[in-house]
Amino acid sequence: MYLITVFGNLLLILAVSSDSHLHTPMYFFLANLSFADICFTSTTIPKMLLNTQTQSKRITYEGCLCQIYFFMLFAGLDIYLLSVMAYDRFVAICHPLHYTVIMNPRLCGLLVPVSWIMIVSLFYGTSLGVYLSSAVTQSSHASAVASVMYTVVTPMLNPFIYSLRNRDIKGALMRFSGMAALKGSI
Asked: The organism sits in which domain of life (predicted)?
């Protein structure tokens, strides 16, 4: 699942960056979300895979603090980027004639760095809920399932949810992979 997450998100980033038709605010934010998802899963999954392989659950205090810091940073970035994407769609739907004026390149460029410093309380609530529920119920299996759901499954599904039903992304992926040239020659 980790490799699918990384590959799917990298493919989406490459499709958006290589196709000039996708150089719009929505795809700019989508590529940033894909990058954040790669970083988010890469903070915990490699260590989890190592622990599974070695049957060891040890982590240094410094390693734990570093992992928690980056985990929360990229989780907050994910949620903030989703909020920015929702705002972008709101402007596109409710103010279509003013869309290019409101969502100008300067604002889009500003929203992404701001997203790096914003942490949304919704994710902190989820993380705190999993932490507290595991302390109360003493069920490591339920906690592990919940952790895998929001650290692996959601970032893995994001590129599929946001792109596979989109003709522009499908076209860009076809052009990127060279399938359009093969399809045209048949």
From this structure: Eukaryota
